[in-house]
Amino acid sequence: MSTASGILSRNDLSALFDALAARGLEVIGPTVSEGAIVLAPLDGPDALPAGWTDVQAPGAYRLHPRDDGALFGHTTPVGGWKRFLHPPTVRLFQAATTADGFTITEGAPPPPRQAFLGVRACDLTAITRLDAVFQGNPFTDPIYAGRRAGAFIIAVTCAQAGPMCFCASMDSGPDLRAPYDVALTEILESDHRFLLEAGSAEGAALLADLPLTPATDRDTAARDRQITQAADQTRALPPGTAERLGRMLDHAHWNAVAARCLSCGNCTMSCPTCFCATVEDSSSLDGATAERHRVWDSCFSLDFSYIHGGSVRESGASRYRQWMTHKLSSWHDQFGTSGCVGCGRCITWCPVGIDITEEAATFAAVDAARHPVEA
Ligand code: SF4
Ligand code: SF4
Fold first, then answer.
1. Is 135 in the pocket of ligand 2 (CB under 6 A)?
2. Over 50: is that where the pLDDT of 1 sits?
3. Is residue 129 within 6 Å of ligand 1 at its C-beta?
4. Residue 118 CB burial class (10 angstroms; 0-12, 13-18, ≥19)
5. Largest CB tally within 10 Å, which of 166, 255, 271, 344?
6. Which residues pair with 53 in a beta bridge?
7. How much of the chain is helix, strand and coil, in % rounded to 5?
């Protein structure tokens, strides 16, 4: 049989973990922790969220049991894969005093190669957005590039979209639209199994080591049915948002959003493409060592836009406008794509339920009222 695709039975799933471990890959994937599905190191199939799904709404997230034992029967996990490529905190260097001065040790030890198991279409696209930021010419961030080069990506077909998902309108899903090593589709009909399809030579080599049986038309039809169903379930960002926001920078509605916004930064922390960071220095109490770390920052923090003498964006309205227009509008000018992949996390994890698609719809309605279409 071809090693480019095949069926792995649920009972043989541990063989996938074994094959990844044999390649020296640490498996990162979805698991239940503290009442949510998060991404964390997995030591085997038993760590996957079997029989759990998530229910998301603006400002709300709950786990619910499901009776079919699905392992990937949820939508977006809390946080994306960003933290494994662009860590929340990473040491840039350490300085240590010596008898005749000091020494500098650059960086931190690189992590082991990691396999990302269960990357959804929106998050797969989000990784390519981060690639453009951290590896786009002429600058390459060595911390990101090292982790990215070691990542082995096992994408997963979305069988369902959550109520916060709008990937289809952002050209980021629900079908896989960016490179991966292996695509996995979980099929629950008749017997619990996985359709595995290689997307790279390394992916094909992995599949060759697994106890696969040939995939049939029934299996690929199940995959296509899942994608169609998920696409039908997504909602949409209004068309023309990128251009519209660019010409509505002074509109009063920014103040209305800011009246609700807490400037907590949850939206930026949960977003799989927000990449802003700052540097923090610290020293040991005895003064023998000092370290500089890069840590995530947010355009919602007052200090983020601090330039000599004060912050450029002092009002909440200016900070929300900066975030939303960058994601949906000026990112196009910078990188040629949207900065938003429609994962919906910023809506779910906003404590007051501010919904980026609703705000975009409000701007569309205001714009339509200003410029009515001639009959
Ligand atoms: S802006 Fe919101 S919906 Fe878009 S990628 Fe970020 S978290 Fe997801
Ligand atoms: S939009 Fe929501 S999540 Fe983002 S800073 Fe404001 S209150 Fe926090």
1. no
2. no
3. no
4. buried
5. 344
6. 64
7. 35, 25, 40
